[in-house]
């Protein structure tokens, strides 16, 4: 229930920077994936507003997938970040990071990591 309350209240815009660093992605790229214009981000961060519920939920899912991916890759962050950026056959020959723009895409990346963890081709 705490998670639901966090989603309803929204995370601060600074959370985007934290996830950007954890994902080894520039803030600008993460904003593109969240479909948030740079000017909106700058304005709302400056005025210390919170993200919408949808954006908060997506960031929480991204944080979880990053944690899970690092676990699957035995905390070898460079290998994991490299994997995120390379086209993957089981994801339709697109880079896993390109699917971070939707909850369904994030789930597909999680499924792919699951297959890797259990020894299936991914």
Write the layout of secondary structure elements.
Elements: H1 2-9, H2 14-23, H3 27-34, H4 38-46, H5 53-72, H6 77-85, H7 103-117
Helix pairs in contact: 1-5, 2-3, 2-5, 5-7
Average pLDDT rating:
93
Class computed from helices, strands and strand pairing: mainly alpha
N- to C-terminal distance: 33 Å
Multimer state? single chain
Q: Name the shape in a single word.
A: globular
SSE string, helix = H, strand = E? HHHHHHH
The domain count comes to 1
Count of strand segments: 0
Radius of gyration from the alpha-carbon trace, in angstroms? 15 Å
- Helix content range: 55-70%
- Weakly predicted, low-confidence segments: none
| Count of helix runs | 7
Main sheet: strands, sense, barrel = none
Strand percentage: under 5%
Account of the 3D structure:
Helices cover 65% and strands 0% of the residues. It is mostly helical and 122 residues long. Helix 2 (14-23) crosses helix 3 (27-34), helix 2 (14-23) packs parallel to helix 5 (53-72) and helix 5 (53-72) packs parallel to helix 7 (103-117). It is built from 7 helices and no strands. It has one domain.
Relevant terms:
122 residues; mainly alpha
Task: Please summarize what this structure is.
The protein has 122 residues and is mainly alpha-helical.
């Amino acid at each position: 229930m705490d998670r639901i309350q966090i989603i309803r209240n929204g995370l601060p815009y600074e959370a985007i920077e934290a996830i950007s660093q954890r994902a080894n992605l520039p803030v600008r790229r993460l904003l593109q994936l969240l479909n948030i214009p740079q000017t909106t981000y700058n304005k709302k961060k400056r005025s210390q507003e919170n993200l919408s519920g949808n954006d908060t939920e997506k960031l929480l899912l991204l944080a979880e997938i990053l944690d899970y991916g690092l676990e699957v890759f035995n905390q070898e962050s460079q290998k994991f970040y490299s994997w995120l950026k390379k086209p993957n056959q089981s994801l339709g020959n697109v880079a896993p990071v390109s699917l971070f723009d939707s909850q369904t895409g994030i789930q597909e990346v999680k499924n792919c990591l699951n297959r890797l963890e259990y020894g299936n081709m991914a």
